[in-house]
Amino acid sequence: MGFRKAADGPSFFDLFSQQAANLVSATALLASVLGASAQERIAIRDQLHEVEHSGDEINHRIARLVNQTFITPFDREDLGLLGSNLDDCLDLIDEACDLFVMYGIDELPEQVSSLLAEQIDILARCADQTAQSIPGLKSPLDLRDYWVEINRLENEGDLTYRRALTAVFDSGLDPIMVIKLKDLIEVLEKASDAFEDLANAIETIAVKES
Q1: Contacts for 186-191 with beta carbons within 8 Å, 24 or more apart?
Q2: DSSP-derived secondary structure letter, 141
């Protein structure tokens, strides 16, 4: 297919790459929450809100570019879905950070804390893979290793999710804290699923382009 970028702005690929870079920043901030004080967590949450706001702006620019560009590199609905999938990943990372602050999640049993860290590390690896691969989106068929690896990481995330829930229910923590942690663990799992949805969307584009 032919392609032209908007005359006065970045291409779709530039914007997708910017959004993927935001995911790396967001997961790094989320990871830093675990060892932070209550006051530091508020500052980290605020920084992550700024990254999420930047992501919203990029997603709006993608939507505008879809509407303004006469010849697009892929189907319009696929471009819109990619932007939406990237935005979903960022929103869920932001939500997880919010829950740490709102719920006052701190001083957890070692096993629970370790499994939360594992969930966040899986998200960080998904973000790194995405940021490394998205610049190659112009040749989506070359990204097979990317979507295979994201699928593997999501499977690893599923296992960690189940282990984390089990650890929380067996922890002897106050029932209210158990509910709060269950919420957090489920949002982290949704973020992992969102990365897989993104990878699946890229695989779908590759199949169409083949």
Answers
A1: 186/161, 187/92, 187/95, 187/96, 187/99, 188/92, 188/96, 188/116, 188/119, 188/120, 188/123, 188/161, 189/119, 189/157, 189/158, 189/161, 190/92, 191/89, 191/92, 191/93, 191/96, 191/123
A2: G
Say which DSSP state 5 is in: -
Distance CA 37, CA 77 (A): 43
Give yes or no for a contact between 140 and 205, defined as CB atoms under 8 angstroms apart. yes
CA 29 to centroid of chain Cα atoms = 12
**What's the rounded Cα separation, in Å, for the pair 46 and 146?**
31
Instruction: Please write the tens of the pLDDT for every residue from 36-90.
Output: 999 999 999 999 999 999 999 999 999 999 998 888 898 999 999 999 999 999 9
- List the structure tokens of 7: 């005359």
Widest CA span in the chain: 60
What's the pTM?
0.93
The answer to whether residues 131 and 21 touch, using CB atoms and an 8 Å cutoff, is yes
Which is more confidently placed, 128 or 75? 128
Question: CA-based angle 7:11:15, to the nearest 5?
Answer: 135
